[in-house]
Protein: protein-glutamate methylesterase
Amino acid sequence: MIVDDSAVARSVLSRMIESDSSFEIAAVAGTAEDAIDALQAVRVDTILLDLEMPGAGGLRSIPRILDNACGAHVMIVSSVAEEGAEETVAALALGAADALPKPGTGRFNGRFSEVLISRLKALGYAEDQRPAAVAPVSAVVNAPLRAMSAERVELLAVGASTGGIHALNSFFETLPRRIGIPILVTQHLPVPFMPVFARQLGIAAKRETLVAEEGMALLPDRVIIAPGDAHLMVVDGPDGPVVHLDRSASYSGCMPSVDPMFQSVSALYGASAAGVVLTGMGRDGVQGAARMVAAGGSVLAQDEASCAVWGMPRSILEAGLACAIMPPDKLARRIASRVGGGACR
Structure:
């Protein structure tokens, strides 16, 4: 379903999507209200949603759209998805699975079309309407879970990509406000989004949340976020562990990447480090998770049912590195039980 008040945008997006035989346009709508009405009669896998529209608009309507979407994913395709970082991060926090800046009139071609199609394929089917031809994941992934390290967790590192902001909010809303250890976060987002993302995550986490800077101290209950143009790593400083920012190419090709974060954490904290891998496409985090497990640490991953895209967590499970596969809130409870931070809120 395409939801956009511009007839030109609806037409161009429709042609782009239907150029790939994997997709068909099931419905179009000019307002969020029309989209909600249409969802009573049609089932879709993905909803492309503009944020700037008449009426209630796209942003405020996301919860109602998701309530009526029967498991469909919402992808923001809007001209404010880049310069309007605050609105986009808010949309992702409300449950949108992905966001893509909509180019200006006359520039709907080439690279944008390729990126749109690849993102749609990564999101896949709506959770409750996958065709029977698709084999159940349980029949494909049959890797055993590892035992969690017996050491008390002294540092938590969390990685996420597509759908990650919503998952991070759920994770931190459940995590006790005081657990007494530093927390690192690598979320795949462009640089302009980071200050807004840090501010909004800080509200959900109810703790100090900062975009990483070189030499920043790792303090108990401080959340430090990878800046968007560098890998977040930790090294020994004169007075304890500090942030080191690295801009070299990563194994996964991501910038920032979860792999360097996990690798540096494993080198410094060993068996007392815990990593969490949340929703996201691709395999970022597998190499670093292997290093973390080899050093005695523990890696936990989000389950398929609660993921927008079960790519990164699935790769952790398939590699035999996971000690738990759970929704974000239960992952938070598991971490809390290993740090002596008290009962969950």
Q: What stands out?
A: Residues 123 and 309 are 6 Å apart (CA to CA). The longest strand covers residues 231-237. The chain has two domains: 2-123, 143-337.
